[in-house]
Specification:
The protein has 170 residues and is of the alpha+beta class. The chain has two helices and 14 strands; from the N terminus they run H-E-E-E-E-E-E-E-E-E-E-E-H-E-E-E.
Amino acid sequence: MQVRTVRFLSLIAIATMFAGCQKENTGTTELKIHLTDNPFNASEVNVDIREVRVNFRDDSTGWINLATVPGIYNLLDLQNGIDTVLAQGTVPTTTLKEVRFVLGNDNSIKIDSVVYPLTIPSGSESGLKIKLNKQLNAALDSLVIDFDAALSILQTGTSEYKLKPVLKIK
C-alpha cells in the first residue's frame, strides 16, 4: 500500500511540475532590432556597435545576446525612413524590459571634413540602455530604435565631442 501512495504522490508532483512548465512556456518570437536616425548637421556620426542584448526581467538577470551584425554604423546613413537590421534572435514571447547596445572604441564624428573622436561615457562598459515595457507579438516582432544624433551630441571644447545618447522606440 505504501508503494502505491508514493507512486500516486510522485505522479501528482510530476503533473504539477509539467503544468507549471506549460504556464511559463509562452512560445518564442523572432525579434529584429532596427536602427535609424534623425537628421544632424555633420557629415558622419560613427558609432561602433559590438553587441545587442535584451532582457525580459526587471533585474540584471535574464539577458539574451542577439545575433548582432557588429560594425561601425554612420548614423547619418540611416535617415529619412532608412534603417538597418542590427540584430535578431529567437526570444520568449513575453514582455521586453530592456535593450542594450554594447559599444566598441571606434566612435567618431566628422564635421567640415575633420574627424573627431566621439567619447561615449560608459558605452563600452555598460552599453547604451533603453528601458521599455513592450509585449512581443507571437512569431515575429520588430523594434525600430531611433538614435537621435542631433539631441545626443555635445561639444565640450573646440575639438571634444561626447555622445549622450537619446534613443527612442518608433
